[in-house]
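REQUEST FORM: STRUCTURE PREDICTION
Request ID: SP-0412
Submitted by: Lab K.M.
Chain count: 1
Length (residues): 192
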Amino acid sequence: MKFLILANFGLGLWKFRKELIQELVFSGNEVTVSLPYDEYIPRIQEIGCKYIETKVDRRGKNPLTDLRLFLNYLTIIKSVQPDIVLTYTIKPNVYGGIACRLMKTPYLSNITGLGTAVENEGLMQKITLGLYKIALKDAKCIFFQNEPNRQFFNDCGIKIKNSMVIPGSGVNLEQHIYEEYPNLNYSYHPKS
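STATUS: Completed
RESULT:
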């Protein structure tokens, strides 16, 4: 099978998805990753992945920059012709998801957190949730890191057909020791 992974930075892909990528490659699959270049890309390539550089302005709000990202994803999907696309983090989830829908390419999205664009009420939240609604509509499965995030999407009118809560990002416990979760005094309260 041909897998395409869309993400926003190599550090996160390497630290939290390395074992998944290794398993995909070692099982005989062709794996292409697309994200901005950083010092982790050579390590990812050493596993056996192909690499396509994609500029992702992780915190940017420029619609023209995001349009270029979306068009770039369309080009990449057309070029790679993957059997399935895996997306991580908000911009790959949104723009990669919409590109996959248009190209009729199966995709899986991983909601790794809500992010400030979704957490903070206002125009940006409405736009982002509207884009998510379009992007996630045809996903084969949507993975959430926790139940409150899945409930938030449901409460915001984003009907999720196929989803599951996964117990974290799959951190390698041999490389990362257990630490108590910090008390952030944050809790999600659904609107009545």
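NOTES: The mean pLDDT is 90.
Reviewed by: T.R.
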